[in-house]
Amino acid sequence: MDSVASHSYEVHLEALAQAALQQYIAKSSYSKIFLMVDENTKKYCLPIFEEKIGVQIDQILEIQSGEANKNITTCVKVWDALSKNDGDRKSLLINLGGGVLTDLGGFVASTFQRGIDFINIPTTLLAMVDASIGGKTGVDLGPLKNQIGVINQPKMVLIFPEFLKTLEPRQRTSGYAEMLKHGLIRDAVYWNSLRNTNDYGDAACVQKSISIKNDIVMQDPTEKGVRKILNFGHTLGHAIESYCLESPQRKTLLHGEAIAIGMILEAYLSHELKGLPRLSLEEIKDTFLKHFERVDFDGHDIDSILKLLRYDKKNSHGNINFVLLQAIGEAVIDVKVPDNLLLKAFAYYKE
Amino acid sequence: MDSVASHSYEVHLEALAQAALQQYIAKSSYSKIFLMVDENTKKYCLPIFEEKIGVQIDQILEIQSGEANKNITTCVKVWDALSKNDGDRKSLLINLGGGVLTDLGGFVASTFQRGIDFINIPTTLLAMVDASIGGKTGVDLGPLKNQIGVINQPKMVLIFPEFLKTLEPRQRTSGYAEMLKHGLIRDAVYWNSLRNTNDYGDAACVQKSISIKNDIVMQDPTEKGVRKILNFGHTLGHAIESYCLESPQRKTLLHGEAIAIGMILEAYLSHELKGLPRLSLEEIKDTFLKHFERVDFDGHDIDSILKLLRYDKKNSHGNINFVLLQAIGEAVIDVKVPDNLLLKAFAYYKE
C-alpha cells in the first residue's frame, strides 16, 4: 500500500507504517517517548501496538475515553503527567486512539512547552479517514465542540487497518459517514462504489478517503477557502451532536451518526438553494437512513439545536454559512440559508 | 520615532502607533473587537487608550492582574467570555496590559476557535521591551512558568511610553533588568550607557532594546539556536521566581527582580566556565545590586530552587543548559554546569 505525501507530514499504511515509525524513531534523538491511550485502546490496541510496532515507550499516559472528556480538564491532567514524568521540549507524544484522543493529544503536544512533536496512530475508522488528517487539534469548551485548539501537523500519521477489527460495528459505521462525505463533496464515482459496498473498511477505501481529504487540506491548510467543503453536514451535524451530548433525554450520538443527519438536512438545503437534483437528494437520504437509524427530534429539540448553531465556530458576523452541494461530487461554500428552510429540512428528515 | 519591522508583525512607537492601529482597523473587517484589561490597566491605562487611540471597542474583558492568575483557569474564563459575547474566527483581541496579560491574551487568542488575530499594547516597561516582542505566548502550570503555550505572532505591537508614567517605580525597575540583559548578551556599548543612565524608560532606550530583541527573534523565531541567548539569567531566574511565588515565607519577586539575581548567578558561572573577566563579573553584580535589593536565601531556599530547575522548560535530556557570557556583549548557548558550581554561585551572590 502506498504512502500519501503531505506538506509537512507523512501518512503511511500497514507494513510501511511500521517501517516508517521505526526508522523515524531511530534517526531522531527524542529525550522521552510518551504514548497516550484510553481505557479501550489500552486494552484492545496497545497489545497490537507492542507486538507489531515494537518501538520502545518510556511512559504510557492514560485518559478516559469519550467526547465528554475532550476538555481542558483532561488536558491539564496530561500536561501535569508530562511535567511530572520529565517531559521536555525534545519529548515525543504518540497518540494511540480515536478522534477524541488524537484531537486532544495533538492540542496537548502543540501547547506543552510551546510545542513538542507528536505522531497520530488512529484506531477508529473515523480517526483514520478524518480526525488524524489535516492538523486540526483541539478540545471542547462546555457544549461548544472544538472551540479551543490550534492547527498544527503531526510528524506522521500511521494507519493500521488491523485496529478496525477491535471496533464495535457502531464505531465503524460512524467512520463510514465521513467516507461517504468525501464522495459527496469531491468524487461521485467514489460515492457510488462506497454506498454499494459492505467492505468500506478495507485498505483501498481508507486510502481513497485519506487522499481526498489530504488533497483538500494541502490546497488550503488554514481553511480560508476550499477546505471548508469538508464541513458539509457539519454545520447542523455539530449542533445536533452537541445537543444530544448535553441533553439527558437524548441518546448521545457518535460523530458520524450526527453528521449523517446533518448531511441529509444539508442535502435538502442543497436541493432548495443550489439545484441538487431531487433524485440525488433521495439517494443521499436513503443511503444514510439505511445505515443510521432515524432520530425522532421534537419541536423543542429542534429549537435547541438551532440555538446552538449560533455558537458554531463556522459562523461569522452572526451569519450561518453552509457548505452545500450543486451535484454529488460538487460542493459550494459560504451559502447563507434562511431560517424557515432549516425547519423545512428537519421536516424532510422526518418524512 | 521609527517603526521596527519584523517577519510577520510590526512594532510602532508613539504617534505612529496611533496612526498604524487606526489604519489597520479601518482596512480590516473584524466581526467584533475585544479589548482585554486587568483591574489596574482598566483604571490607569484604559482612559489614556480611549483618549489617545480612539478605536471603537465592542466588548471589554477584564481579568485579575498578577502572575498567580496567569493560568488555565483564567484562560477558561476568557474563552467563555469570548464565546458568550459572540466572538468568532473573525474577531480581534487587543491586549492592554503587562506581560502576564499579553502572554495570556496571546495564548487565548491563538487557541480560540483555532486562532484569532491579536494586537499587543504593552503597558509596563517589561512587556514593552520583552514579553510583547517575539511571539511567545502562554500561561503557567502550577509552579511551572510558561509551561503551556504556543509561539504565534501578534498582528501588531504598539508602544506608548506614556503608559510608563502609570507604573510604580518597582515595576519600572523590573523592566530595566531585561534591558540591561539586552546589553549584556549583544551590545557592550548599550550596556555601558544604560547602566549609567537614570532615564532608561525614554523612547530611545525602549526602541534600542526592542531592536536587539527583535533582531535575535528574527534570526531564530522558534528558538532552535541563537534565540536562546535571550534566556541569559532566566534558567536560575525562573526557578527563583517560581520558588518565591509558591513559598509563603518569601516575598514574591517581579520577573525582572528574579532574573536580576539570575544574571548575577549566571555571570559567576560565566566567569568560572567561559572566561568572563573578573572585572566584568564585578561590574554586573554591582550594577544589579545598586537597583535590586539582595535577597537572603538560606540553604533550604537554595535546595528548593535547584529542585525546580529540573522542571524548567529549557532543560533537555535531564541536563540543565545555561546561556553564559564570554564577555559583556557576547553570549554562548547550551553550556552544561556542574552542580557544585551552582552552590558556589549562590555563595558569590551572598558575598
TrEMBL record, chains A, B:
One GO biological-process annotation of the entry reads: aromatic amino acid family biosynthetic process
**Listed EC numbers:** 4.2.3.4
UniProt xrefs under Gene3D superfamilies: 3.40.50.1970, Dehydroquinate synthase-like - alpha domain
| Xref: SUPFAM superfamilies | Dehydroquinate synthase-like
Q: Name one GO cellular component term.
A: cytoplasm
Q: Which residues form the 3-dehydroquinate synthase C-terminal domain?
A: 175-315
A Pfam family found in this protein is DHQ_synthase
User: Keyword Transferase, does the record have it?
Assistant: no
Q: Which GO terms describe its molecular function?
A: 3-dehydroquinate synthase activity; metal ion binding; nucleotide binding
Q: Which InterPro entries match?
A: Dehydroquinate_synthase (IPR050071), DHQ_synth_AroB (IPR016037), DHQ_synth_fam (IPR030963), DHQS/DOIS_N (IPR030960), DHQS_C (IPR056179)
Which cofactors are reported in the record for this sequence?
Co(2+); Zn(2+); NAD(+)
Annotated function:
Catalyzes the conversion of 3-deoxy-D-arabino-heptulosonate 7-phosphate (DAHP) to dehydroquinate (DHQ).
Supply the name of the protein.
3-dehydroquinate synthase
Organism (species): Flagellimonas ochracea
